[in-house]
Amino acid sequence: MTADLDPITVEVIKNSLIYASEEMGIAVRNSAYSPNIKERLDHSCALFDRDARLIAQAEHIPVHLGSLPWGLRRTVEVIVRETSALENGEMWVVNDPYISGTHLNDVTVIRPIFFRGELAGYAANKAHHTDVGGMVPGSMSADAADLFAEGLVVPPMRLVVEDRDVSSTIDMFRANSRTPDARSGDLRAQTAGNYTGERRFQELCERYGIHTLRAAIDRIIDQSETRMRAALGRMCEGTFESEDVLEDRDGQPSIRIALRLTLKDGSAHFDYAGTAAQLPFPMNAVYGVTLSGVYYALRAVTDPSIPMNEGCFRPVSVDVPEGTLLNPFRPAPVGGGNVETSTRNADVVLAALGQAAPDRVPAQSGGTMTNVMIGGTRDDGTPWAFYETNGCGMGARPGLDGLDAIQCHMTNTLNTPIEAIERDYPLRVTRYEIAEGTGGRGKFNGGNGLVRALQLTQGRAHISLLSERHTVEPRGSGGGENGACGRHTLLRAGASAEKLPAKTTFAFEPGETLEVQTPGGGGLGTGDPPSAKR
Question: Among the four residues 16, 58, 76, 489, which has the most C-beta atoms within 10 Å?
């Protein structure tokens, strides 16, 4: 069958699958309740074949590149082991990071796709729920000592049976969140995304036949593998080492990520021996998040046009010692690892790849998602929870300046519009602008960070901040200057400004204003980019 498959049919099926995953994301966005998903697009969608191989993933969130396929395989293994089989008409939900691959806020919903009574594939999506309980609003405390302090932990459970919602599962999410209506609404949005993916997949089965579709999927995956091996083969072979640091809760740059990259014969091996041991606070990143950093950086440096599927990463192996920052033992807390540690890992991978392909790697970007979680109760007692990441300065690129105030590397979300913030929360945006002069100078200049100021207008609230690059500046490259560090400031009427730590939780009173300034990107060069090491 494969030998008789014409290339035009393969190409049509390939693009149909890619757009089906994108259309899934549109359905999630249009159906979502929370601004974090509807406005910021903090979700990812993908399709898999019956063997749980990734066949198409939308260009949504980079930190889900490796974690969504890794998590789906592990989730299916658990389901099959405990229930013997997945049934037609079901959907399953999971957020346990040690199974699904990111952190508790990221809730994964999986739909087995059947065609004429036979399992044909899976539709899956992952979305960041603003609050899943835990010790602070937003469920991402800087102080959580274990996973259980971060919120509700959900093993694989049925969310839909016989195409009807399982009310007890939805009620469990509602009962463990400060914003229950948004939780149930966002779960239903995720089911809408999977129904969309299922319809499109079944339409391809009807149009081409299941055997032709499977043969095309095999060809598509093989093509991606061939292209990735060719792209790796064009890079300089050798072993390249890089390292960087995260800042601890006291702001000290003491948490090391070390990488040894070997490029040989069109393959890439990543060895993280020497990385810091796992931590008693939530900067640990589960293995799926570490994979995402590797996969993102590889795609960015090699050829982003290669279709995202299982074949892209057949030439890639990743070795991370257990019990370390990038592969912790359960139940280490992981809330910040998904956002901050993942970003630093991308910096480390890009630094190693930059030694093999210096003309394709920018200077360091701001290096943080600058996570802001605020929540509490309004004057009438109604609970609320707000979450967003903030853009930073992009590092200068070979031949181009960096961009100002954008989400860099491991996040691909938008900002929350001022109108949405002031409509849905007791917050007023008093300042939102480019932080001029924060980008590093060079032949090509780094992008500037941003300033965002939020004032509480009523009720009671707490703020949790998880950020990086308040002590260590984003590095310039090739003689370019470093970008400026970020900072957090609390403003009170009639009082001097109070400098805040990068990682902290504190009470927030009406009339007070939180001001966040994000780091700038590094500058690039005083002359031509350096030649590759050999």
Answer: 58
The whole model's pTM is what? 0.95
Burial of 258 per CB tally in 10 Å (0-12, 13-18, 19+): middle
Nearest CA to 349 out of 406, 275, 445 is that of: 275
Distance between CA atoms of 468 and 171, rounded to whole angstroms? 36
Give the Cα separation of 190 and 107 in Å (integer).
Answer: 9
Amino acid at 109: V
Spatial separation of the C-alpha atoms in residues 341 and 140, rounded to whole Å: 14
* SS3 per residue for 294-307: HHHHHHHHCCCCCC
Give backbone dihedrals phi and psi of 203, rounded to 5 degrees, phi first.
-65, -40
If we measure between CA atoms, which residue out of 521, 497, 517 comes closest to residue 434?
Answer: 517
Number of Cβ atoms within 10 Å of the Cβ of 23: 17
Rounded Cα distance between 40 and 34, Å, is 9
Contacts of 528 (CB under 8 A, 6+ apart): none
Token couple for 387: 């979450």
Confidence label for 527 from pLDDT (cuts 50, 70 and 90): low
Peptide bond into 321 cis (omega under 30): no
Q: Checking DSSP bridges between strand 513-517 and strand 487-491, what pairing results, if any?
A: antiparallel
Q: What's the rounded Cα separation, in Å, for the pair 341 and 346?
A: 9
Residue pair 371/467 in contact (Cβ under 8 Å)? The answer is yes
**For 58-117, what is each residue's pLDDT tens digit?**
988 889 988 999 999 999 999 999 987 899 999 999 999 999 999 999 999 999 999 999
Distance CA 331, CA 132 (A): 17
Read off the pLDDT of residues 260-272 as tens digits, 9 standing for 90 and up: 999 999 999 999 9
Q: Tally Cβ neighbours within 10 Å of residue 136.
A: 25
- Count CB-CB contacts under 10 A for residue 35: 21
The helix/strand/coil state of 251 is coil
Longest dimension (CA), the chain: 78
